[in-house]
Amino acid sequence: MDSQADVSDEIAAIAKAYEAAADDGQGEETQPRLEYPPYRSSILRHPTKDLHHADPEGVELWAPAFGHQDVGALESDLTIQHGGEPIGERMVVTGRVVDGDGRPVRHQLVEIWQANAGGRYIHKRDQHPAAIDPNFTGTGRCLTDADGVYRFTTIKPGPYPWRNHRNAWRPAHIHFSLFGTEFTQRMITQMYFPGDPLFALDPIYQGIVDPAARARLVATYDHDLTEHEWSTGYRWDIVLTGTHRTPLEEDVPA
Amino acid sequence: MSLVPTPGQTVGPFFGFALPYDHDSALAPAGHADAVRLHGRVLDGLGEPVPDALVEVSQAGPDGSFPVGAGSLRRDGYDFTGWGRAATDDAGHYSFSTLVPGSPFFGITVFARGLLNRLFTRAYLPDWFEREGAHDPFLAGLDAERRATLVTTPDEHGFRFDIRLQGEGETVFLTYPRH
After folding, report:
1. Out of B65, B73, B170, whose CB is closest to A254?
2. What is the ipTM score, two decimals?
3. Which of A3, A82, A220, B129 counts the most CB atoms within 10 A of its CB?
4. pLDDT confidence tier of residue A247, bands split at 50, 70 and 90
């Protein structure tokens, strides 16, 4: 198994090549690379051919709709799903989902999932010997409001070890699943916490080679969201890609 | 105003307790008179199954329009919502029960451990592909071998569509303007 130093060297070499290309005027890479060998699982799972340009048509101009029949109001609170209080730092995370033109994504589904405070997932394949918290599952859903705002109450997840290389640890994160108003805007990502010492070591986070781009995944601590004797607060806004439909078409099913 | 989109990240290995839900892959109940199956395998660069992938489908109804109603997460067994989700099993196999769309293709999104961002592709209906494929501006932009990765194969209960992330027969994955 490779060491962290091996992987860190690979990460640094890719970063250096990216900086050199940026100095030569190559634009910012705003998304992760699909081919990023320091993340070992990507080696056999990334397409080798360039993504093919397509103009969206038909179903690609539509997204599924979700309503209150799909998502219960209590599903946004991950701390009340069992008989008792989960262990760890209670926190709120909230922000706005907007499209590439800054318009709010209204009444749309947001799904999250995460490890518990000890860095343990409920998932049966997670064998990390940290305690399972009987009062915490780590899944939540909500619908954005009319201004595109989502809000969850949860427990701050812990970092956890994985087998990419020896002594590999993921920075603490919450997985987010997002929909826009079009198929083309679908995305899944991870939200991180400010100042995590594991950022530089993590080949998934560093798979976004541009420093400004990957910083977009880091939430901000917001004391105005923190509640007296109750919970800490984090803010994280999300921008989806741009849409293609004209407003007129929006009201007329194809 | 054009904003820079937030980057994606891998779905990771541990989504199985979070994203799948009851009847997620049953856009139409399997017992429905018109139900068909859309299924296949997700394969890696060695042709090995990917047992920790998640496939989503977006499609028109039989009349060709995209349904605009809610209800995909708690299906009532009657309304067709045009959207579903299926995790792959240990053999890398995913399966939907659905209706034949009245438009040329199923829109497919793929997530997996090891895949740093989602992939989009299209699964074309075989009849339409055979009849119109050569004249379609999008498909005509691909050579025949690549184009063939986007067509479903008819089988006993519906359509088969294998998704090859890498290597021989690598599926054509898409990027759209404004990505």
Report:
1. B65
2. 0.97
3. B129
4. low
